[in-house]
Design goal:
Layout (H helix, E strand, L loop, with lengths): L2 H17 L13 E5 L20 E5 H6 L3 H15 L5 H8 L4
Antiparallel strand pairs: 1-2
Length: 103
């Protein structure tokens, strides 16, 4: 990972924690929370990996929910939560693979 990507990831992390008030978006738990990418890094093309660090693609999540969050229904629900709470728009060209997926 390049140093600019690390910087972007670090800035994004701070913004996500602030936006979500340090609370899990799924259950509201605080304390020991983590950052979760709703669209996984592997879903982005090699030249666009930094897009996974966009604030709208990341959320605060507790460890308990994070164990479940790597399945598609949880990822889709996370995008829906952020869309409802913050008015984010998820362009079809990047997000349709997840929004339309049910597995």
């Amino acid at each position: 990972m390049s140093s600019s990507a690390k910087h972007t990831e670090s800035q994004s992390r701070a913004a996500v924690i602030e936006r979500d008030d340090g609370l899990c978006i799924y259950c509201g738990a605080g304390g020991s929370v983590e950052i979760h990418e709703l669209v996984p890094r592997s879903a982005f093309s090699r030249g666009n990996k930094e897009l996974c660090f966009e604030v709208r693609n990341r959320c605060v999540i507790c460890r308990s929910c994070h164990r479940e969050a790597h399945c598609w229904p949880w990822r889709k629900r996370g995008l829906e939560i952020l869309e409802q709470r913050h008015g984010y728009v998820y362009p079809e060209d990047r997000y349709q693979a997840i929004l339309g997926r049910t597995r």
